[in-house]
Each structure stands twice: as C-alpha cells, then as structure tokens.
Inverse folding.
C-alpha cells in the first residue's frame, strides 16, 4: 500500500529540486558535472558524512526545540556499535603512546527534576589528538577512544581520556570539494560524543564542546548548542572537565508527537 508520508516527502524533494534547476537556470554542463560529483559522493562512502554535516542538525532542531532537559546534538557518521564495556575507574581504550593532553571528564546524569540517575548506560566516542576517529582512519586500533560505562550511585561517571583535536572534513573528497564550492572552511570544534540511555527516559544523543575553541561559532555541521559548551580546568599534568546531562522522561518526548 502506498505510504502517504513517503510520497509527500519524496514528491517534495523532486519539486524543490526542479524549482531550483529552473530558478538558477542550471546549464547542461553544470548538470553533468553535478552528476559526476554526486556519483563520487556515493563511491567514496561519504554520503553519511555529507548528510550529517549539512542536514542532521535541522532534523534535531525541529524535533526537540522547546523541550526541557539537555539538548541533543548530532550523532554524526562516526558512531560504531558494540564498543567495549569498561570497568571503573574508567579509562577510554587508547594506545600506549596516545598523543594529547590528559583529560578527566565527569558527567552527572540526572532527570529533569535534578534526581541522579544511577546505572545509566553511557556510550562515549571521540576523535584523537589528530582529529581522527578509530575505525574510519587507517592505523588506529579498533575501538580506540570508544567505550561504554555506567553511572555510579550518585548518577556520575568520570573517565580518563585525551583532549580531541578539532575535526577537519577530509579536504580531498567530494564533501571537502563541496565545501570549497560554497566557500566554507572544513572544521568542526573539538567535541566528545555521548549517548546516554536510561529506561523510562528519552535516549540522549549529544556532544560536549570546549570553551575557547576557535570553531565554536562557525561549526561546519552546526552542532554546537550553548548549553553543551564546558570550561576546561588546566592543572600541571592534566585537565578536568564536567557537564550535567538532564534526561527527559520518555512521556515528554512522546507528548510532542
Ligand atoms: C563529526 O565528527 C561529527 O561529529 C559530525 C556530526 C559530522 C562530521 C564529523
Ligand atoms: Fe564527531
């Protein structure tokens, strides 16, 4: 049976694209060049990257604006499931000589009334000090800087890791070329990724950013939200950071549908 929602969305996509072609009077040569670029986007496996950089933020903004609790941010193209379950005291899996400043990061997981949420599943992943993600860049051990943790009796977890570098979209590929076509830089501010899952609550997919990062204002993927920016505290041989995650009860998320 025909699905009305699918029909209306795909019809809309066609309509807007046809309109654009006519409005811009796209030439046959431009059209053929676009087809080659689009083909390259698929062949290089960059479709997930391209989609998340340009469109994911708009999906989230529409779904969550005005709701209480911590704001979601982008899942992005670099999450992989089945990360190793870690044992407290937590250290993200890393190479013996892992580059970068040591970071102790603490998350406080609460409900929207401020009650700590114990035994929450916390999934964390991040780029390394070169801005590269394991599984997606060559030469990095599988699951490097990725892990699953649980909050303690106080609804808290602390993990030892390294400060990630800002992420740069690979400049040689089709997504990088697209950014030069539209005269944009290829950077995202440095960030940590989290998924926090507690039964009875809306699963929170979000990111944490660092005050003072040069790319906060112009994140190419538009994933920064003010409430997700933390201030790092520098000590002699390490840095500390923390944030509170407030999870909405599942019914608040459902009520909006
Ligand atoms: C990333 O690291 C990321 O988190 C997103 C959303 C898009 C591209 C690269
Ligand atoms: Fe990322």
């Amino acid at each position: 049976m025909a699905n009305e929602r699918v029909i209306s969305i795909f019809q809309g996509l066609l309509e807007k694209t046809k309109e654009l072609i006519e409005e811009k009077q796209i030439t046959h040569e431009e059209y053929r060049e676009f087809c080659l670029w689009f083909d390259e986007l698929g062949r290089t496996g960059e479709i997930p990257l391209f989609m998340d950089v340009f469109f994911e933020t708009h999906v989230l903004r529409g779904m969550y604006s005005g709701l209480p609790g911590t704001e979601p941010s982008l899942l992005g193209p670099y999450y992989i499931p089945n990360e190793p379950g870690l044992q407290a005291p937590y250290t993200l899996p890393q190479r013996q000589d892992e580059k970068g400043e040591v970071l102790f990061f603490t998350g406080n997981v609460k409900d929207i009334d401020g009650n700590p949420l114990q035994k929450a599943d916390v999934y964390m992943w991040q780029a390394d000090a070169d801005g590269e993600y394991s599984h997606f860049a060559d030469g990095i051990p599988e699951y490097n800087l990725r892990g699953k943790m649980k909050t303690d009796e106080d609804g808290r977890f602390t993990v030892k890791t390294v400060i990630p570098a800002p992420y740069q979209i690979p400049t040689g590929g089709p997504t990088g070329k697209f950014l030069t076509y539209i005269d944009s830089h290829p950077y995202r501010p440095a960030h940590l990724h989290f998924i926090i899952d507690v039964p009875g609550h809306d699963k929170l997919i979000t990111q944490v950013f660092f005050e003072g990062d040069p790319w906060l204002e112009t994140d190419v993927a538009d994933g920064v939200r003010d409430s997700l920016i933390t201030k790092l505290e520098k000590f002699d041989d390490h840095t500390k950071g923390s944030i509170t995650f407030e999870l909405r009860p599942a019914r608040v998320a459902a009520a909006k549908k």
User: Anything to note?
Assistant: Residues 56-256 form a domain with the Protocatechuate 3,4-Dioxygenase, subunit A fold (CATH 2.60.130.10). The chain is about 25% helix and 25% strand.
